[in-house]
Specification:
Strand content: under 5%
Helix content: 55-70%
Largest sheet: none
Number of domains: 2
Radius of gyration: 41 Å
Order of helices and strands: HHHHHHHHH
Number of helices: 9
Structural class: mainly alpha
């Protein structure tokens, strides 16, 4: 009888299955198991951050570009021309490039100010149209013709003018712009600039 009780006691104590706590303790440490997809998650996070940063950069650049365009649109023809002429002085050590920039600035101004298609016309065509334009006085027409002829010599005949000659061209362009500049009274007058509103009173 004692042997039977001892056997039963051993079955109920040492011989039974382990409890839940013991089972959990025997499980491997999940944190120590490497995640085969971990690098994929890291790559996705990096791509998302890069995409967001790129989007922010594009938005900032677009805002800056729009602001610059609005600033240019608000400039009057003579303001834009004088600004462009002043900037051309930075390349006065390059005679041909300087003359081309000054000439283009003046031609663009004449188109914006007097509706003369100066940039598209040859010098001969422009001089012919200018002679019949009442908005320019004889002195301005003479100065423009001399300016254009000298510019053509530099651009096409590859004449190398000195700094004095270059400054004379610059002064002629600046004087023509300054003498014919106007201040519009409203938006409508800005679209249709009359010659009698010139700053110089011409």
């Amino acid at each position: 009888m004692d042997d039977l009780q001892t056997a039963q006691s051993s079955q109920t104590t040492g011989g039974n299955a382990p409890g839940p706590e013991q089972f959990i303790e025997q499980l491997p440490d999940l944190e120590a198991v490497p995640d085969p997809n971990g690098w994929i998650r890291i790559l996705i996070i990096v791509l998302i951050v890069a995409a967001v940063a790129g989007l922010i950069w594009l938005i900032v650049m677009q805002l800056r570009r729009s602001s610059a365009q609005r600033g240019e649109q608000q400039l009057l023809p003579h303001e834009a021309a004088l600004q462009r002429l002043q900037k051309a002085l930075e390349i006065i050590h390059q005679p041909r490039e300087f003359v081309i920039e000054v000439s283009d600035a003046l031609r663009q101004y004449l188109e914006d100010r007097f509706r003369i298609a100066a940039p598209e016309q040859t010098t001969e065509e422009f001089v012919h149209a200018m002679r019949n334009d009442p908005q320019l006085d004889p002195h301005q027409k003479e100065a423009l013709q001399k300016f254009l002829n000298t510019s053509d010599l530099v651009k096409f005949a590859k004449v190398e003018p000195g700094r004095h000659e270059l400054m004379e061209l610059f002064d002629t362009a600046r004087d023509v712009v300054s003498q014919t500049a106007y201040e519009p009274l409203d938006a409508e007058s800005a679209d249709n600039p009359p010659a009698e509103r010139s700053v110089s009173g011409r």
